[in-house]
């Protein structure tokens, strides 16, 4: 069964407590929390203050995805805010191995996200240090985009690398995940489905989450 991580970026922020209450009643496994700085991606979202709110609003895993430059400057703040996972972008990290060591030293699981143009082979030398690889199946920065079909090939390639090394690394897929394509994504080798608009804009978000979790 897939791990479902609804992306709060697509939630109704005027009614955020109600959105959290809905997720808490659902079978969603993780809260996926996108942090954007307006520099690494052309959008600004939220920072540690809201992570702290989500941490207090749920007992579910807080899966924090940093789409920011110089993530090492903020890792401790997100740890203090209650992040369980901290994912950084390979494209934003000059010293990725050092970033991973820092995240783990702060008591969080370490994730690495890769953009659509980035080959999974670049993770070869650090894959054994990564708890979660987040394959971006859209260009990061905005919700509601369409899934990039080539992402399926990247998921398969990464799954083979993980299997060949008998690693426990999870594959997370973020961007354009819907009920229509989720089965294909899981079949390709994904463990975690990040779903934003397809959950929060559905007629029955709890039922949508349940359907995704059964894949």
TrEMBL record:
It holds the Pfam family Ribul_P_3_epim. The keyword Transmembrane does not apply. It is an enzyme of class 5 (isomerase). It catalyses: D-ribulose 5-phosphate = D-xylulose 5-phosphate. Pathway: Carbohydrate degradation. Its cofactor is Zn(2+); Co(2+); Fe(2+); Mn(2+). Substrate binds at residues 7, 65, 141-144, 174-176, 196-197. Binds 1 divalent metal cation per subunit. PROSITE patterns: RIBUL_P_3_EPIMER_2 (PS01086). HAMAP family: RPE. Catalyzes the reversible epimerization of D-ribulose 5-phosphate to D-xylulose 5-phosphate. This is Ribulose-phosphate 3-epimerase. It comes from Terrimonas rubra. The gene is rpe.
């Amino acid at each position: 069964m897939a791990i479902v991580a609804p992306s709060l970026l697509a939630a109704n922020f005027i009614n955020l407590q109600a959105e959290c209450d809905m997720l808490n009643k659902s079978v969603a496994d993780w809260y996926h929390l996108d942090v954007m700085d307006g520099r690494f991606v052309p959008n600004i979202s939220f920072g540690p203050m809201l992570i702290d709110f989500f941490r207090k609003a749920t007992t579910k895993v807080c899966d924090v995805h940093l789409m920011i430059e110089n993530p090492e400057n903020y890792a401790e703040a997100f740890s203090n805010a209650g992040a369980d996972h901290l994912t950084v972008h390979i494209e934003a990290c000059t010293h990725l191995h050092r970033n991973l060591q820092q995240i783990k030293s702060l008591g969080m699981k370490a994730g690495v996200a890769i953009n659509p143009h980035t080959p999974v082979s670049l993770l070869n030398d650090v894959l054994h240090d990564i708890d979660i690889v987040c394959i971006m199946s859209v260009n990061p920065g905005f919700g509601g985009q369409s899934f990039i079909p080539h992402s399926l090939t990247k998921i398969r390639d990464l799954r083979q690398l993980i299997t060949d090394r008998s690693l426990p690394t999870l594959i997370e897929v973020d961007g354009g995940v819907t009920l229509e394509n989720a089965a294909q994504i899981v079949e390709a080798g994904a463990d975690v489905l990040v779903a934003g608009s397809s959950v929060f804009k559905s007629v029955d978000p709890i039922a949508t989450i349940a359907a995704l979790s059964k894949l």
